[in-house]
Target: Stage V sporulation protein AE
Amino acid sequence: MIFFWAFVIGGLICVIGQIMFDVFKLSPAHTLTTLVVLGAILDGFGLYEPLIDFAGAGATVPITSFGNNLVHGALEEAKQHGIIGVVTGMFEVTSSGISAAIIFGVIGALLFKPKG
Model:
């Protein structure tokens, strides 16, 4: 059943994004930002972790998970290091994903020639 719920929850997050494109005519940047903020707000209220426990990859793969990671890391580090932990916690939790995206982007740009 975990695969079913991952598919349903991940699909619902994607449907929300698609509705934002089609109905509200939001740009990709506005949609992306809104979904990240939505994930951050849900984590701030303690609702995203239960969603991850329920849906697994259906909640950790979409972009809402990035907002969740930012807030989650900031809150964890704030408990340990105070106000400076808010800033360092966000970067500590998300740095590996961002670093990987930059590194693979550069490698892709070096290996492949763009068309056009």
